[in-house]
Amino acid sequence: MKLYTLLLCLLILLLVVEAARKPKKPKGKPKPKSKPKGKPKPKTKPTDIFKKYTKERKGGICWWDITRTDCAICKQFVNAMPCGYPLHNYCYKKSQQGCPQVPNYKYTLSTTGYPCYWDHEDLRCAWCAPGAYQCGPGSKTGPDSSLGSRCDRGPSSVCNGVVGDCRHIPMCHVDATCAFKDKVAGRSVFQCKCNKGFFGNGIQCANEDTGAVGVDPNTIVTVKATFSRDYYDKNLGSFPEPSDALVKEMEEINAECTAKFSKCQTNLNVTMKG
Questions:
Q1: Nearest 5°: phi and psi at 13?
Q2: Residue 20 confidence (pLDDT)
Q3: Is it true that the peptide bond before 137 is cis, omega within 30 degrees of 0?
């Protein structure tokens, strides 16, 4: 019994010694202390992509309608271009496409301002990227649709459209010409270009000196004037000018414009009362 107890104690002693010889496992690296949470990043707006290129959101002439001055002014030296409607208060990186967020912007530069191919007097249709098709009327792609008029890649069956250039929609301004611009996918693209001495988008051209947008000489203008006996007596030989001279001038213009081979046309009706 004593021998058994002695052997048991010896075994326990050997186990303790062996355990002491084994190297202790190194403690793991301490977990890094969590950084204090800073202020949350401000949420970005969809229009933030235009900040780099936009100097002022209003005050610039609209390229798609030069009679308007409520469009963006672009920053210089950043290769910027003004966007078309409805993003007309922003500028973006210059390209052959429209600005992002313009409906169907890969093919649409502006959703309004260009003559509609089915009604050349209606300027509520889309300006197309070179080679794109201006879509036809209707509730989905026409100027009365929810997103306005727009363009697509074509062919005409895609959106019942025609190529949106001056060869297919011949409505250049009287002071502009339809000129070759580029070739896109093997297709020649033409663009209205204002003549020397004029500026604009080709659909509208203004005189560089006066800023006035010219009117087609074939435009019919109606002028109606009424002269009473009192008016004639009061203004004879005075303001606004001698009545006799005014009537004579009108008669001379009428005679010139009613002559054979005349370049103008008039129709003067004079009614004498009491």
A1: -65, -40
A2: 58
A3: no
CA dist 33 → 72, 95, 202 (Å): 49, 49, 66
How long is the chain?
274
Long-range CB pairs of 64-67 (<8 Å, 24+ gap) are 64/88, 64/109, 64/110, 64/112, 64/113, 64/114, 64/127, 64/201, 65/112, 65/113, 65/123, 65/204, 66/199, 66/200, 66/201, 66/204, 66/206, 66/213, 67/204, 67/213
User: What letter would DSSP give residue 18?
Assistant: H
**DSSP 8-class letter at 165:** S
Instruction: Output the six-digit token pair for 36.
Output: 């204090």
Question: How far is Cα 235 from Cα 97, in angstroms, rounded to an integer?
Answer: 60
Structure tokens at 180: 């070759």
End-to-end CA separation in angstroms for the chain: 161
> Widest CA span of the chain, in angstroms?
161
Overall pTM > 0.90? no
Q: In terms of DSSP H, where are the helices of the chain?
A: 2-21, 156-159, 229-235, 243-257
Produce one character per residue of 91-127: b if its CB has 16 or more CB atoms within 10 Å, e if not: bbeeeebbbbebbbbebbbbbbbbbbbeeeeebbbbb
Cβ neighbours of 70 (radius 10 Å): 13
Judged against a pLDDT cut of 70, whether residue 190 lies above it is answered with yes
Instruction: Decide which of 59 and 186 is more confident.
Output: 59
